[in-house]
TrEMBL record:
SMART domains: AraC_E_bind, HTH_ARAC. This is AraC family transcriptional regulator. Keywords: DNA-binding, Transcription, Transcription regulation. The keyword Kinase does not apply. Residues 8-106 form the HTH araC/xylS-type domain. It comes from Alkaliphilus serpentinus. InterPro entries: AraC_E-bd (IPR010499), Cass2 (IPR029441), Homeodomain-like_sf (IPR009057), HTH_AraC (IPR018060), HTH_AraC-typ_CS (IPR018062), MarA-like (IPR050959), Reg_factor_effector_dom_sf (IPR011256). GO terms for molecular function: DNA-binding transcription factor activity; sequence-specific DNA binding.
Amino acid sequence: MNYYNRIQKSIDFIEENLLKDITLSLAASQAYCSLYHYHRIFHSMVGYTVKDYIRKRRLSCAAEELFNSNIKVIDIALKYQYKTHASFTRAFVDEVGISPKEYRKHKKKPYNFDRVNIYSNIYKSLLKESLVGPQIISKSEFNVIGFELRTSKTDEMDFKRIPMFWNKFFNSNLGNKIPNKIYPDTYLGYSCDFDEQGNYTYLICSEVEESTTPPRGLVKKIIPASRYATFNVKGPLPENLISTWRYVYNTWLPKSGLELIDNTDFEELNMERINKDIPEVTIYIPIK
């Protein structure tokens, strides 16, 4: 089953269970993906995080019932997994712009957020794109030490916070605080520890000697041995980097015939390459 089919299967599962409590782990299992890779691929293909997609679909269905029925607001709220009238009203106002009561009263154009079909025209056009072939390499297990940021894919918060994190890292010369670096001018951006809410940890780190103890305030991780598909990203950063991440999971991976493994991806920044007129970054995607 290819990745388009996997994500569509999870979307179908979400649709069938909008009236139930949907855990992200269970949704990910429908796509035969780890929670980490499921977040990445779903967001790239659908354009929303899993959490945001579920919220929008529930509110869309709730809006339809408000528009076309006389069911009490609290009953609609409970039906679509909101525990209180107040929490439903807050979510509805944030999404639609007016309260459920006002929405029902004024009977204006209905709010609608349609169920996504991966094979709609926008995704069919992506299938026609030419495949950019990466280089396939193998890396042994290695150790990293660095600084961590807890962020989220909700509302693409990570696309805003991670570039700021890198700016702080370089402007404050935080790289100098990482001991025993094997490659002094090379830094990695490593994502890990996803949770059910779409939150995860982003680590700016360097490869270090195995016996190194992290200083206070820094963390150490072991990156397992793996094969990787690597993509070189050139041009304005972070714009081209963000676009390439989307391309990898949205277009290249489903067409490649390759399978991800339960390991995380990361990006590699070499200072010599970053400081060129046209900066370069390398993305590593773990594969079988």
